[in-house]
Amino acid sequence: MYRSQCGASHGPDIRTTQVSHHSFSLRARLRSFFYACAGLRLLLRTQHNARIHAAASIAVVALAGWLRVPVSDWLWLALAITLVWAAEAFNTAIELLADAVTREQQPLIGQAKDVAAAAVLITAIGAAVIGMLVLGPHLLRLLN
User: Fold this and answer.
1) Does residue 68 have a pLDDT over 70?
2) Residue 123: how many CB atoms within 10 A of its CB?
């Protein structure tokens, strides 16, 4: 139980939270995978920027495949794409949680949303730089 439900501080009371020691369950692992896939579908269905990231990801993968970049370059591209997607997912999760708390204008919630969006921007800029560093030389060689 969260202490805020009792009128106290926010977050779980670590002193009273019990740790579950359930044994491994394949069914539970499959269920968690199902929930993760549902989250990805929600992300793509509701977030315009996620669809832009999807298009950019497909374009980068197609271009890298066409240019036949070496595996070492694919590692950088995969890392960049993964970081952008993770940042977008965290940003969306923060926005959804903040909206669940209140729909009223709250300066701190607005700032938290802005910082989460900045994380996506930072990773997207980093991914673009990685894309130029990795794909740029291959494209220049092709043009020459």
Assistant:
1) yes
2) 22
The residue-averaged pLDDT of 51-59 equals 97
Question: pLDDT value at position 5?
Answer: 38
Delimiting residues of CATH 1.10.287.3610 domain(s) in the chain: 47-144
Rounded Cα–Cα distance for residues 56 and 107 (Å): 33
Give 46's contacts (C-beta < 8 A, 6+ positions apart): 92
Cβ contacts of 54 within 8 Å, gap of 6 or more = 44
Which one-letter DSSP state was computed for residue 3? G
Q: Which two tokens stand for residue 102?
A: 């209140």
SS3 readout for 6-43 = HCCCCCECCCCCCCCCCCCCHHHHHHHHHHHHHHHHHH
Q: Round to whole Å and give the CA distance between 15 and 10.
A: 14
Q: What is the pLDDT of residues 92-108, one digit of tens each?
A: 999 999 999 998 999 99
Cβ atoms of residues 44 and 54 within 8 Å: yes
Fold classified for 47-144:
Helix Hairpins (1.10.287)
